[in-house]
């Protein structure tokens, strides 16, 4: 698949954008006109820069408001077009995007439109330019991709084809299957964009909220499948208008973009395989009688590269917290009932465990660094294959010093810089590397305990990137996102999980004001992250922790009154909840009990008990937690 | 008018919110249930705190999903209600907001609904509670305020009335005139919210984008007018769900909120006066034959306070820039053709002028402070009245040291901390205070020159606040906002202007990434602000400035090629534009020529020439300016 990206997706100058695209490994780019107009580089300089960087200049865009106009305006539009075609020849470019008219269209007549597009194709031919005509979702008369294609067929000129943009097609909920019947020669260009499903006017949605494939909710693999089956083999290029990407570091965004296309390529191949097996492909020959044989994918002009395959992780292997002074962490874990399993034989790290829940306390932190979550280990079938996949998806590798006879962890860095280690899982939930630790002090309680979920705060610039990272590199599935009120604003919460819920990762986007404050004080984060452990008997766990003097997050009495108003509750049970600072939730599938510890640095811990099929995280209780944590940061109700 | 605000509008803990409301001068508050549930204060503590602060507890809210349910759920809902009514009695509160059912409504039958609301009213009566029933815009069966009112009439119980919320009514574009026929006794509460006109689902619009009155586009004065005419005299309370307000400083947001109600009170009185004069009031007696007599407003139970009246400002009196090292500013102004008029006799400030455009250079800046726009003077009819109005609108007063015989400037601080001075205008555009300056060096050129517009960068937390500030305190009108692409993101641009365009102020909301960077480096702002001067002959001005060695913002050659493609242009004129780095725009009403200087600190200057009725700011050229300015900050195309 030939990969591309429009310069409008990225921040910075045209030159910075081109460099970032080359580093990320794109085959070509679309030059967005405004980036050229505002650049000090001459067209000849741009052509040379692209050649030096090994980047194709695949599309010049956009040329607007051409068709469906009265004769005098047509003349002016052809003059405009000629000027741009000359510019393209200086750039060495041969394809231009022409959008269906929004602003100046006056005559709704396909015959006239075809005649006008024919004049344009004729002029383009004289300049050696190919016109890719695209139906904008909000085009005045032409806003449907099949309509644009019909016009192209009517004109039937070698220099006129169509451009298919997934946003303009999927935002209108149009069926994509008809693409397969298109003549591939007439598909001049393909642009892909994903987007969250939003109910708003399509123009604003398009201009601000597009995201890279895998970061939204469009069925892009299917869209691409139809295009591949049509026989198209040209560039597949990202055109993403997104307020955040426009502000983010250009090289990083380009890598995120490239990752999305690599992932889309794999997903498209999977879609073709799956639909070939169902006979939808019209070419697959796998009969129902030979299930052992993988369904063969027909060969199409577009070659789709594949990635090393991984299954979703089987569980958390460990969580690692890091601090200069680790005393607070040790105290909390010990009070929760974790056993100190000893120190590593070559590194300054401790191992603490409760059942299969393992926490590494890393003492190799910078001076004065407050406790923070540093790394997560995941159990995978084959760490080497999983690591190869992640690296092909451009995940940065984490260097790790290893001594002889020690287990080698395959590590990659998540977008928020949490280190993700791909570990060899074992069926019984144990981990071989624990033998590298010396003898500890105490036996662990809570044999059934596991890591239930981990909650990581995300910087706003990298939230969408994180969703794609965990989806593509770790095979987690995003759940619908939620928003939780806190005293400093709404917290956006995105659950990433496996189908069996053995891994649950919660990505929280803290309010901007908190992130600004964090930026000014590197040693103290006002947002907090946590690790939650599941146990079989939360009341017993809480009571034991209380006896050991644990500093619980104190839940206000008003909460328990509200609980009693909301649910029918046994008075004795309610009294126990209140006594132990336990929170409670209930839904049609089960119950959820949980409590939180006080915070050290930016880390706190949660203990949970899931009863029945309860699958959530106690969302109605989240505002209580946020408010109490905020309150404990502002103990005197000081005027801010 | 009794003023109120819902605690959900503000950030922080309940106690912090209550303190901020008291400081801002609200009469009462609405307790949002979640703020109570998450608070460590007991209901009795909250009651006492409110009493100590002199705040009424006017509404407990919300009680959800009550009506239109099957019998077994009704029983559970009444149990829930009884628990809340008991809580309200501990709080000493007597009014509760009950929203129309969204989630659990199953039976669409007004008879049943009236019966169920009657049961609720009965129970409320036993607890001394009044139920204000509100139709949510997205209520399952009841989503129209007239429908809610009909149900209240059907029940006809003294403890059941309705709550009118401007968002739920105006977001659905419902006519507000029928409110006048309502029995005022049955209007238990009024909530006001403004909002920008957005095309999105009404729930998301409501939850994230409400703003304070005067910051959006709803016709709130008319809405209030109908309510006043109905005879309602209860609280008018703000209920604003807004992502930014939830994150902003609580005391500051409370002041902004209070300002919006003071302004709304005045606007409502004006609407009543205007519509009484037209005979719409049904009570006004001003006949067409006595135009000299102000139309009399009928006396209504709700008293509407008024403010000192001001007309829109007649023009800019001066602009003030401040720096530790002022050499760069002096050089730019001198090269532009400004004359140095001398130094102030008692202060370390210089006066520079060109025609009626006056720039004060203030040397009393902090050590190493880079040049920045510090103050703007506006010509008003009566500075004392204008200042009184601004202060009643809670604008902070700027202290100003004044010597004997010097003109006293009435100064207030804008939300971005720019100092706004209200100056005595003169018909000939001169300013009396210039006599306080010593003799300068040179005579000014450009006798027709004036300040055309000033462009101020706004912090994201205070953008809406700034719109209301300039609307209410300075009588400027907001124009529809625009968005301009820049290399670091979209810049939101909001023009505030007078009807004759003598004053044009442009508020720019810089991309967040820039604001974050600014926060980390107090001495260097990556965003820029500017002052634009209008002259009669821009080409001559530019040529003279070029001869004096002015450092023009360098416009890329690509811009002029694009200009030639977009417009038909005389080749000689195009060559002149290119030679002098002039930018050009044209629309149906006229033409616009302009150029920019290089930037010193965070300030640059613009010179403009308006031809014909051109009323804009060269918006198509703004991306060019942003890109070139960005480029000059990153001269080596360094990897960021």
CATH-derived topology of the largest domain in chain A: 2,3-Dihydroxybiphenyl 1,2-Dioxygenase, domain 1
Give the DSSP E fraction of chain A (strand runs of 2 or more residues): 15-25%
Instruction: Kindly report the average pLDDT value of chain A.
Output: 89
SS class of chain A:
alpha/beta
Amino- and carboxy-terminal Cα gap of chain A = 55 Å
CATH architecture of the largest domain in chain A: Roll
What is the CATH top level name of the largest domain in chain A? Alpha Beta
CATH homology superfamily name of the largest domain in chain A: 2,3-Dihydroxybiphenyl 1,2-Dioxygenase, domain 1
Radius of gyration of chain A: 28 Å
Largest sheet features of chain A: 9 strands, mixed
Report the strand count of chain A.
24
Low-pLDDT residue spans of chain A: 281-295, 520-524
Tally the structural domains of chain A: 2
Largest interface: A-B, 69 and 69 residues
Per DSSP, the total helix count of chain A is 18
Q: Roughly how much helix do the residues of chain A carry, as a percent range?
A: 25-40%
Oligomer: homodimer
Apparent shape of chain A: elongated
Explain what you see.
Two copies of one chain form a homodimer. In chain A, 33% of the residues lie in helices and 23% in strands. The first copy, chain A, is α/β, with parallel strands linked by helices and 640 residues long. Chain A has two domains: 2-277, Divalent-metal-dependent TIM barrel enzymes (TIM Barrel, Alpha-Beta Barrel), CATH 3.20.20; 315-633, 2,3-Dihydroxybiphenyl 1,2-Dioxygenase, domain 1, CATH 3.10.180.10. In chain A, the strands form three sheets. In chain A, strands 16, 17, 18, 19, 20, 21, 22, 23 and 24 form a nine-stranded mixed sheet that branches. The radius of gyration of chain A is 28 Å and the shape is elongated. The two termini of chain A are 55 Å apart. The interface between A and B is large, with 69 and 69 residues.
């Amino acid at each position: 698949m030939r990969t591309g990206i429009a310069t409008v997706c990225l921040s910075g100058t045209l030159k910075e954008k081109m460099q970032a695209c080359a580093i990320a490994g794109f085959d070509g780019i679309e030059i967005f006109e405004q980036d050229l107009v505002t650049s000090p580089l001459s067209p000849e300089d741009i052509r040379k820069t692209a050649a030096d960087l090994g980047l194709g200049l695949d599309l010049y865009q956009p040329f607007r408001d051409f068709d469906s106009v009265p004769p005098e305006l047509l003349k002016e539009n052809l003059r405009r077009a000629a000027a741009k075609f000359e510019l393209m020849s200086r750039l060495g470019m041969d394809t231009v995007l022409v959008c269906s008219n929004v602003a100046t269209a006056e005559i709704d007549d396909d015959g006239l439109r075809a005649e006008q597009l024919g004049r344009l194709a004729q002029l383009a031919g004289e300049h050696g330019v190919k016109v890719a005509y695209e139906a904008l979702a909000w085009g005045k008369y032409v806003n449907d991709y099949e309509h644009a294609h019909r016009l192209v067929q009517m004109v039937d000129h070698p220099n006129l084809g169509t451009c298919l943009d997934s946003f303009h097609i999927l935002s209108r909920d149009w069926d994509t299957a008809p693409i397969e019947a298109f003549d591939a020669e007439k598909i001049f260009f393909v642009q892909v964009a994903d987007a969250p499903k939003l109910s708003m006017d399509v123009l604003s949605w398009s201009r601000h909220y597009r995201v890279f494939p895998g970061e939204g909710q469009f069925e892009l693999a299917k869209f691409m499948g139809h295009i591949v089956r049509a026989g198209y083999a040209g560039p597949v290029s990202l055109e993403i208008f997104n307020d955040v990407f426009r502000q983010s570091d250009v090289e990083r965004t380009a890598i995120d973009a490239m990752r999305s296309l690599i992932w889309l390529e794999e997903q498209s191949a999977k879609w073709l395989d799956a639909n070939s097996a169902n006979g939808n492909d019209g070419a697959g020959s796998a009969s129902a009688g030979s299930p052992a044989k993988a369904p063969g994918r027909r060969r199409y002009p577009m070659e789709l590269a594949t990635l090393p395959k991984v299954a979703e992780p089987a569980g958390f292997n460990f969580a690692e917290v890091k601090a200069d002074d680790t005393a607070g962490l040790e105290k909390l874990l010990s009070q929760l009932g974790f056993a100190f399993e000893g120190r590593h034989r070559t590194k300054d790290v401790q191992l603490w465990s409760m059942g299969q829940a393992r926490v590494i306390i890393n003492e190799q932190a910078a001076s004065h660094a407050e406790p923070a979550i540093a790394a997560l280990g995941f159990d995978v079938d084959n760490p080497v294959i999983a690591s190869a996949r992640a690296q092909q998806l451009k995940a940065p590798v984490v260097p790790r010093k290893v001594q002889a006879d020690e287990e080698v962890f395959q590590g990659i860095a998540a977008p928020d810089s949490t280190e993700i280690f791909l570990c060899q899982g074992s069926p019984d939930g144990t981990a071989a590397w624990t033998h590298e630790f010396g003898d500890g002090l105490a036996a662990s309680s809570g044999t059934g305990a596991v890591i239930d979920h981990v909650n990581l705060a995300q910087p706003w610039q990298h939230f969408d990137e994180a969703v794609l990272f965990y989806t593509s590199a770790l095979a987690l599935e995003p759940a619908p996102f939620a928003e939780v009120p806190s005293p400093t604003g709404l917290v956006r919460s995105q659950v990433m999980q496996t189908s069996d819920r053995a891994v649950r990762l919660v990505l929280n986007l803290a309010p901007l004001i908190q992130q600004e404050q964090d930026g000014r004080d590197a040693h103290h984060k006002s947002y907090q992250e946590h690790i939650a452990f599941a146990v079989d008997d939360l009341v017993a766990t809480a009571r034991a922790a209380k006896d050991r003097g644990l500093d619980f997050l104190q839940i206000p009495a008003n909460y328990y009154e509200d609980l009693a108003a909301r649910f029918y509750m046994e008075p004795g049970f309610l009294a126990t909840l209140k006594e132990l600072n336990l929170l409670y939730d209930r839904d049609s599938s089960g119950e959820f009990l949980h409590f939180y510890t006080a915070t050290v640095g930016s880390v706190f811990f949660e203990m949970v008990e899931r009863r029945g099929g309860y699958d959530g995280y106690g969302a109605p209780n989240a505002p209580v937690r946020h408010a109490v944590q905020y309150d404990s940061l502002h103990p005197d109700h000081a005027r801010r």
